[in-house]
């Protein structure tokens, strides 16, 4: 059967891949706006290299990468040990930092604040109305409507979900036991949206809703965003600065898999996270492997400059230098890739 | 005579029910008008040469189009035709010529039931049959999924149409000494040909409108693609992605892409109708 | 036509294997090819079942069939998979769509076949066919931007205010959910039910109808006395076909149901359906058990639609085969 299919494919695909090289990747929606910009700009410099990135969620990215159905993956939730066991030569390449923000649709109410416990209780389903005493306590002087809270959360396997639930699990033992943390959790309530864009769309169109999305999406769609209390007890607004503050002083392990939720630092945004590209340590396809390595070099130098305008925080310099060195150790069929 | 058998009452009920049925008819019109009106008005604004010929642009950049999606749909439907139509038409001819025994009845029954299988289930099958052995998503997988969808409907319609050919034609041919197989091929099927083409056109129209089986077989692609081994964009998946996004300009693109899709499907349906009309007028 | 046949016959007479009858090679090859093509349909059906079962096998190792069907927990992290929320959602949305669509469909079919002048009747089937030709994703788009806001702003608040004592209409009106799915599905299955019902009603022997009319019945009474009893089984078949289509409908439902794997009594609540969860999760299910669970849901869908379609076909053919088969 397989041979028959390959035969048909060969027959039909004669003039097919004449124009340039197609490199397939899939994964997180968290950095998707930035990656799309990167791939589009890189394609302008190298018109014969086409990076086809499908934003299907971190869970999908990990899966497709593990199965080899794509050449590279993207995720905001670092692979777990048992997932790495399936693809032992995976290398996590951190690219940028992003912030997961709490966005809501409550007309007239700007700058709401939620303490960690209130937030956890909302998302575990205990707080169901906007005029709940806990919310009023966090927002003295604001008149809250007697309206039900509709939660918008992820329906697909998501790194954004992983970062958000990781934070809530750290804050609230009840959340940890009832819902847990990870790319897919057992949400007891809420509408499911596909990708960061799906959740953004839900919040945008449903009055009385609240959800979690990456900062770039909330800002672009002008969603109202909440302030949160960080570990030091300060109320912080999500921004590139507060995201970078969360990563300052992070202890980067050798394989770059780290969580920076609920970080210390007086201006740190408590729900920040790195996002990674997943590549193989030794790539088998010469053309694709070379293209990927050179792209990574470009992304970590030129690409980083495009992060801030799109509301992502570039990597801290000390981390960036280390990652560039790691990229230099990637090989194609055992050979290192020289700079273009 | 009680009230219920009085003529006035009966007439009232008669008129009343006729009115109810007419109202229901009007009700059915409402969603149809709503969909068509919105697609045409909202989608029409975005129609442009660029829309048909350009690649999609990243979020936030204006412009871009669905050129690759349109090509992708045409390509995968084309693949599906190559893979599925011969099988479907052949099975239909089998049912018409030899399908009166137990085996024929079983095949017919299975075909009719298969035509009702949800397309997403067919997508899983195509995933197992093509994506897993190949190791990645591909236009071929999408084409296989669409082909499996087309086979039962084409078979059933082909059988119906071949059976419509008057028995007299076949008998005249046999009486003149033509072997059975030649009679079937050259006389019966040739006469039914426009009907068979109609059946194929309708199946193609259905395949062009499918989304679910393509989501995890052909995936998607930002670029032009005619390589069956690579993932491919399609009109339907593009509409889906644009529709569920939060971006207003993408929503507008979803309407315009829907207009394009409706035009494609509409043309196919009209073509099939024209062919049937010619047949009914006593062609050949 | 005779000309063509004669031409062919002349060629045949000149050809080598000229004699008709099963003895000649041409006939044998042709018959064998046809037979093979017919078998292919069965092969395709077998492939479908086989592949679904194969992909679903890892699920069977961890879950019993009963456990899978009755558990309402869908937890990919701990690998507990229960089909109940999706079965519930599929059933509720399909049932709602049937409730909404069947009266209108039958009324429409009656209008087309009985009450409208025959020439008009033919024209009137055109809008129905147009409805049938619109692809599912376009219905989803329409549903998302037209039906959902309409429900959220007008219908659901009204229902909640006036009929809110029923658990069916409680909860916040978000627009997305079972009600939206049911309404859109109703529009989508309407053409199916109408076209099959029209076919079935047309086979009512005219004699029955005319006899009723001759005895002084009004048009409506003729319908009730002659058409409906005759086509009852066929109409039921049409409804079953519509139900089958509603069960398997994917895109339109995925876009408006809210993607919440929960069971709620209220129609306003968000839910999930069998095809929707497969569409959302299949591309990214990582473990074999997760994929197996989704394929298992696919198998349930396949089995259900198979049975429904089989039942429907039997009913419809029974009506079309002749008066000896009618009940009552």
User: How many distinct domains of chain C?
Assistant: 1
The radius of gyration of chain C is: 25 Å
* Largest two-chain interface: B-C, 101 and 99 residues
Estimate the strand proportion of chain C.
under 5%
Strand order of the largest sheet of chain C: 1-2
**Number of helical regions of chain C:** 12
The number of helices of chain B is 11
Q: Give the biggest beta sheet of chain C.
A: 2 strands, antiparallel
Helix/strand/pairing category of chain B: mainly alpha
Q: What share of residues of chain C is helical?
A: over 70%
Overall pLDDT of chain C, averaged? Answer: 85
**CATH fold category name of the largest domain in chain B:** MetI-like fold
CATH class of the largest domain in chain B: Mainly Alpha
> Helicity range of the residues of chain B?
over 70%
**How many distinct beta strands of chain B?**
0
What is the count of structural domains of chain B? 2
Instruction: State the separation between the terminal residues of chain C, measured CA to CA.
Output: 46 Å
CATH superfamily of chain C: MetI-like
Sheet with most strands of chain B = none
Spell out the CATH superfamily of the largest domain in chain B: MetI-like
Q: What does the overall shape of chain B look like?
A: globular
Entry summary:
The complex is a heterotrimer of chains A (340), B (284) and C (328). Chain A is of the alpha/beta class.
Feature tags:
heterotrimer, A: 340 residues, alpha/beta, 10-stranded mixed sheet, 13 helices, 39% helix, B: 284 residues, mainly alpha, MetI-like fold, 2 domains, 0% strand
């Amino acid at each position: 059967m397989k041979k028959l299919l390959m035969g048909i494919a060969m027959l039909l695909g004669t003039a097919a891949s004449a124009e340039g090289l197609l490199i397939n990747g899939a994964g997180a929606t968290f950095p998707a706006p930035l990656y799309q910009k990167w791939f589009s700009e890189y394609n302008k410099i190298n018109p014969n290299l086409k990076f086809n990135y499908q934003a299907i969620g971190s869970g999908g990215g990990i899966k497709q990468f593990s199965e080899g159905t794509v050449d590279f993956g993207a995720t905001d939730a670092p692979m777990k040990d048992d997932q790495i066991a399936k693809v032992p030569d995976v290398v996590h390449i951190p690219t940028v930092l992003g912030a997961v923000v709490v966005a809501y649709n409550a007309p007239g109410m700007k700058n709401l604040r939620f303490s960690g416990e209130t937030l956890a209780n909302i998302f575990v389903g205990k707080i169901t109305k906007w005029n709940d005493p806990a919310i009023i306590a966090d927002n003295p002087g604001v008149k809250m409507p007697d309206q039900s809270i509709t939660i918008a959360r992820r329906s697909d396997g998501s790194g954004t979900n992983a970062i958000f639930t990781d934070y809530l699990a750290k804050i609230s033992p009840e959340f940890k036991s009832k819902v847990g943390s990870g790319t897919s959790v057992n949400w007891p309530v809420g509408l499911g949206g596909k990708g960061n864009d799906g959740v953004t769309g839900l919040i945008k169109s449903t009055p009385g809703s609240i959800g979690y999305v990456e900062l770039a999406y909330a800002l672009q769609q002008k969603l109202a965003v909440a302030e949160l209390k960080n570990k030091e007890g300060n109320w912080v607004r999500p921004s590139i600065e507060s995201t970078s503050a969360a990563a300052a002083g992070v202890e980067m392990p050798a394989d770059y898999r780290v969580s920076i939720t609920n970080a210390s630092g007086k201006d740190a945004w408590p729900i920040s996270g790195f996002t990674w590209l997943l590549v193989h340590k030794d790539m088998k396809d010469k053309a694709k492997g070379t293209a990927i390595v050179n792209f990574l070099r470009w992304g970590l130098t030129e690409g980083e400059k495009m992060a801030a305008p799109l509301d992502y925080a570039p990597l801290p310099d000390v981390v960036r230098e280390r990652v560039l060195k790691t990229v230099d150790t990637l090989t194609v069929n055992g050979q290192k890739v020289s700079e273009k | 005579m009680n009230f219920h058998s009085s003529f006035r009452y009966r007439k009232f009920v008669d008129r009343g029910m006729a009115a109810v049925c007419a109202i229901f008819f009007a009700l059915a019109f409402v969603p149809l008008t709503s969909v068509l009106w919105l697609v045409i008005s909202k989608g029409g604004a975005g129609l442009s040469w660029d829309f048909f010929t350009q690649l999609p642009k990243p979020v936030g950049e204006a412009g871009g189009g669905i050129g690759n999606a349109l090509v992708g749909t045409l390509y995968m439907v084309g693949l599906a035709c190559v893979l599925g139509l011969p099988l479907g038409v052949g099975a239909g001819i089998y049912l018409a010529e030899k399908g009166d025994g137990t085996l024929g009845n079983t095949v017919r029954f299975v075909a009719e039931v298969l035509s009702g299988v949800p397309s997403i289930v067919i997508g899983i099958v195509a995933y197992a049959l093509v994506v897993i052995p190949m190791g990645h998503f591909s236009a071929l997988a999408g084409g296989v999924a669409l082909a499996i969808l087309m086979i039962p409907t084409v078979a059933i319609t082909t059988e119906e149409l071949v059976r419509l050919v008057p028995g007299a034609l076949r008998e005249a041919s046999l009486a003149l000494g033509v072997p059975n197989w030649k009679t079937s091929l050259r006389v019966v099927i040739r006469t039914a040909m426009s009907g068979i083409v109609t059946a194929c056109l309708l199946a193609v129209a259905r395949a062009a409108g499918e989304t679910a089986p393509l989501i995890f077989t052909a995936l998607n692609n930002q670029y032009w693609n005619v390589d069956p081994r690579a993932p491919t964009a399609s009109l339907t998946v593009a509409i889906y992605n644009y529709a569920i996004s939060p971006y207003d300009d993408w929503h507008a693109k979803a309407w315009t892409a829907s207009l394009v899709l409706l035009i494609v499907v509409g043309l196919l349906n009209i073509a099939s109708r024209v062919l049937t009309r010619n047949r009914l007028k006593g062609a050949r | 036509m005779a000309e063509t046949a004669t031409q062919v016959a002349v060629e045949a007479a000149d050809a080598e294997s000229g004699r008709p009858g099963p003895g000649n090679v041409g006939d044998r090859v042709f018959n064998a090819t046809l037979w093979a093509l017919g078998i292919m349909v069965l092969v395709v059906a077998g492939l479908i079942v086989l592949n679904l079962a194969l992909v679903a096998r890892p699920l069977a190792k961890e879950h019993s069939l009963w456990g899978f069907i009755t558990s309402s927990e869908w937890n990919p992290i701990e690998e507990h998979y229960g089909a109940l929320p999706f079965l519930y959602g599929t059933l509720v949305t399909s049932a709602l769509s049937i409730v909404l669509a069947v009266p209108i469909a039958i009324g429409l079919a009656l209008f087309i076949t009985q009450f409208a002048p025959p020439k008009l009747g033919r024209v009137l089937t055109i809008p129905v066919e147009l409805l049938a030709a619109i692809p599912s994703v376009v219905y989803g788009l329409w549903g998302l931007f037209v039906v959902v806001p309409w429900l959220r702003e007008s219908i659901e608040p009204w229902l909640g205010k006036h009929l809110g004592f029923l658990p069916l209409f409680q909860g916040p009106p978000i627009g997305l959910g079972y009600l939206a799915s049911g309404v859109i599905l109703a529009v989508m299955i309407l053409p199916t039910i109408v076209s099959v019902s029209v076919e079935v009603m047309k086979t009512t022997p005219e004699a029955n109808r005319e006899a009723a009319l001759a005895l002084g019945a009004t048009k409506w009474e003729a319908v009730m006395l002659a058409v409906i009893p005759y086509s009852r089984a066929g109409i039921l078949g049409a409804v079953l076909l519509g139900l089958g289509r509603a069960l398997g409908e994917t895109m339109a439902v995925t876009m408006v149901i809210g993607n919440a794997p929960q069971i709620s009594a209220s129609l306003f609540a968000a839910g999930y359906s069998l095809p929707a969860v497969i569409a959302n999760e299949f591309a990214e299910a990582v473990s074999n058990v997760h994929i197996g669970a989704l394929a298992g849901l696919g198998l349930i869908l396949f089995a259900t639609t198979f049975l429904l379609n089989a039942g429907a076909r039997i009913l419809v053919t029974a009506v079309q085969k002749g008066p000896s088969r009618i009940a009552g």
